[in-house]
Amino acid sequence: MDVDEQGDGQGKAPQNNLRPLYILKTVAEAAAPVTAAELGETLDLPKPTIHRLLQTLEEDGWVMRDLAGRGFVAGQMMRRMAANTFSGPGLRRERMAILGRLAEAVGETCNISMPDGDAMIYVDRVETHWPLRIRMPIGSRVPLHCTAAGKAYLATLSMPQFNRLLRRLPMTATTPHSITSPDALADEVALIRARGHSEDNQEMVEGMVALAVPIADDLGRVFGTLSFHAPVQRLTLEDARTYLPLLKQTAAELTETL
């Protein structure tokens, strides 16, 4: 087969100028890090070609090696492009309308967050109208181990992915309630997987509670989390749980915007 002329990424090698795009597409759609050998087999490309293209894409930041160093995942440039697409004015208006309805119903600040290395970053937010609020603007990075958003994301990882991340995850206490033990975090994540949502009971900020659920695309791939937080003076954790059905329903509505 002439690898230069065939190509749709489905048993035929993509054309020369499309090869990097098909590599990025395959990496982006994979549920786990993809090795060079797997990419070569999927795209029907010779080993030297795959390694040369991966080296270029890695040097330019489009892909990066996973924590084990054996496979490739989306790099900073690919994540940035995805975030820019996600933040496009048309899609963002629709998301903000959905987020605004949730904030109005709950009466508290609601957020959409995305993973960013060993943290979560706020990409969309609707603030509560109450003067007493916890202010964390869009672009703020918060830890994975002590936030509802972070723990909700951790619960979506495969066990190998979670265990690799756990080995290098900083677990600094921000309040006396923060989880700082890898074993305790693993137990918490197992509980989150079982019940389908995560909770922050004053773990990130003293006097603040939060709930979060994952947001997935129509293929079931999780790209972020939906959460709300409130001061305990206004909303107890028990009261916050009454909004879980609405939180999950809103996450499903957000899926339709992807």
Describe the structure.
Residues 77-258 form the IclR-ED domain. One of its GO terms (molecular function) is DNA-binding transcription factor activity. Residues 14-76 form the HTH iclR-type domain. Pfam families: HTH_IclR, IclR_C. The chain is of the alpha+beta class and 258 residues long. It folds into 2 domains: 16-73, Arc Repressor Mutant, subunit A (Orthogonal Bundle), CATH 1.10.10; 87-255, 2-Layer Sandwich (Beta-Lactamase). The protein has a 6-stranded antiparallel beta sheet, sandwiched between helices. A two-stranded antiparallel ribbon has the order 1-2. Helix 2 crosses helix 3 (47-59) and helix 5 runs antiparallel to helix 10. It is built from 10 helices and 8 strands.
In a nutshell, what does this entry contain?
The protein contains ten helices and eight strands. It is an alpha+beta fold and 258 residues long.
CATH superfamily of the largest domain: GAF domain
Which structural class fits the helix and strand makeup?
alpha+beta
Assign an overall shape. globular
Question: Which fold name corresponds to the CATH topology of the largest domain?
Answer: Beta-Lactamase
What spatial order of strands do you see in the largest sheet? 5-4-3-8-7-6
The top-level CATH class of the largest domain is: Alpha Beta
Radius of gyration: 20 Å
Domain IclR-ED: 77-258
Protein name: DNA-binding transcriptional regulator, IclR family
InterPro entries: GAF-like_dom_sf, HTH_MetabolicPath_Reg, Tscrpt_reg_IclR_C, Tscrpt_reg_IclR_N, WH-like_DNA-bd_sf, WH_DNA-bd_sf
GO molecular function: DNA binding; DNA-binding transcription factor activity
